[in-house]
Amino acid sequence: MDSDPGSTAPSVPRRDPGQIMRLERLGSSHQSRLSFMRILLRRIATERWHFSRPEFAIDEACVGHAVYSVRTATRTYSLVAFSHQLADEMRSDRVIAEAWDATFALFDGEPTAADVERLRNNVPVQESGRVSETELTMSRANKSVRLWSHVVESLAAGRQPELEQIESVGYLMRTTAVYGSGKFGAADHAVIAERPEMQTSFQAEMLTVYLIRTFVRDLVEHAALVAGGDKAARLEPVIARQLGIGNSTGLGMAPFIINHPVLFNNWLMAREEAISRVRSVETASESAQSLFHAVLRRAVLLIDSWSSDHPVQQKKLSKLRADIQSLTQHVDSEQLMGDYPWNRLVEWSENSLSVEGQELLTSLILEPYPDLVDGLASCMVDPETFSRPIDGHMPLHELKTIIEDRYDWTLNIDWHADEQHARAWYVSEEKLEPRLGERFEEPLAEYELALAPARDVAKAYHLLCEFSNTGAKNGSTAAFLLAHPECRQAVQRVQLNLHAPYAEIRDNTISAQLMPIDMLRAKLAFFGATRFDPRSDRWLRISMFGGAPYPDEFHDVYDDLWVYPSSKTSHSFR
Amino acid sequence: MEFSLNEIAATTRKAVRGAGYPWGIADEAAANQYWMASYRLNGCPRLVQVLQQLNGVDHKDYSPDCQDLHWRSSGKYLCPLITSCALTDRVKMLSENSTLTIANVAEPLLLIKSVFYLASFTASVSMRWSDCLLVTDGKVIKGSGSFRNYLIPGSGSANKSLNGKCEKTKTRSASDLFEVADVTLCMFDVSDTATNAKPSLSDVELTLNERSTRAHVDFTDWQALDKFANRTYAPATEESRLKGAGSNLSDND
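Predict the joint structure of the above. Result:
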């Protein structure tokens, strides 16, 4: 029998932040039951949201607009999509682009014709336009030209596209930004934060991308119909399902997890609590065991479909493939019998698998236990974003002790060595997006963003020691901060850490060895992204919603494990 | 122009940093402006005044000496951004039934969120400067005197939230005079009848108890903030375009 989830505290503690908060591990994160895409789709299925397509005014050149609406129990959200003609030389995934194949806004309600016209004048130009409080997000996407042409040509000729090509790319369009939270005049997150369906992080953004995926399927079929006329075929549902929406993500995403320490802590705390609960299960029921075996088989297919040209990711993938083989053999021989099977499995993995493999396993063991895990989704929020007062009353010796206990890892770094602060985060005036530069090669110091907590806490510690030595030993934090206002952020982070142990990345975010893609993946895995494909050390492509049911496919049976390909047969459908 | 509150916070944060304050002060100023806008308090023009007047000065000279209950600066006046942080940091050290005077504060309105926080932590607080009085228990703010002049010039919903007592508000903008005033904060217990001599919540005219989710900011003020914010952006070079963002690959694949 499985343990009762609510009766006692888990016997296996949450993993130590010192182990979890290293960039190598955060950069090996995987999607899980607590990923934002899966939380959204579970809710859609449970609450039986109703989808419709009130407008599809796209012409023969694939230019025009469409509206996709979804009705929840209490309100309606609508994706307003604009399709454009884009010359190849204009197609750029970079944030500095000025035109796209398609642009979108998520409207809060059902847009009138006047709303659509207003959006038509603003959304296609993205950052140069202005939206209003009725818009929750703004986004854009570019075609994967190669796959798009292949699919249109195949369907127009009455054929289905080649599976190899579908698999190798995984999406027909990739978004290059999904703006929310008040950007460019859109509604602040606070406007929707109290709505149950929007409480968990990034639900408006996830809904936007989910609806974009449906629009893209419809658009490619429309293009094929225009080209092929009566001959044209519809995309087979089983092929359409393989298609996700791609996303190109650059450094703009990295500062978020440093600038929202409590929210990031709450995401990790929820995940680590879920892992701790499952590891504390005394015995695994037969159904839990068989579900795990099934998920593991399906995870193999997911990993098989993941490729990357980046040498670092290729190395990680090759280890992960070996890991999943070892894991399959290990659970086959052990059959998950005996006490605390999941805990033993995790302990085994820590000595037997790479970090990628270990993190995949901690994600997979959550799958058989929705009752232990899914409720934690409601904890993945931070209602107090703008209210983090410093406790100025805290005696300095106490502050010093906290730093020594919790930030010993940064006190041990030699901050005099150039390589430890070789990089500087800054915002370029060109497109107002974060970038990472070489501190000793470019004049960036005066523009540096506060994205180096490791260095800043170490510096605050030394100033605090000096301040104490000058006779203020029994002084307060408030007195120290009045003398050293430049240490406010560092002191705030140190105090937050008392209540938010997973708030801080325990690595140097400005060292010469930094791989910024690790920071991006840490966040994207929580979104539920798969097939991480780094294109350099600072940007990558991913796939979102690949395998997910389309709005017309929820029916009565919802496969909550949609992210894992269901079988080799469907995976290689022809 | 209408803005989301996050836009106001984001621009404030960069503008304050661009004006030479540390990021931690900029964070608090941003949170304060977000909060003030949600209460329909017209903080942006007050902030513009501060950033322009204190442009290029050594902020240490405009920081309070907080040794006792009479805060003052060694310079001409106190910076409200620094003083607001000092007040927030000291809420546990300020007891009920005490009075704190803060001499020569520039743009005293910018202390209001820290006063609100102080009240939510200890007791009710009254704040007086010039002919302005406000009282807060950490839940609602009521004001009298010229307090109404600090409200964002009203939309219909803004007036409605003022318990129907609001008359047409006078617009203040950054072109108004730079305000410097002595501020008196009284911490008192509203349930204590012995403190009747102190202002009670029924003395005042305005109750700001409905939060707003948008704010109108005068375009000139917004431009002024943007100008300071621009100082935080590094000039683009082709090298930084390629190296900084890490991409020079074709996206036509």
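The CA atoms of residues 463 and 484 of chain A lie 8 Å apart.
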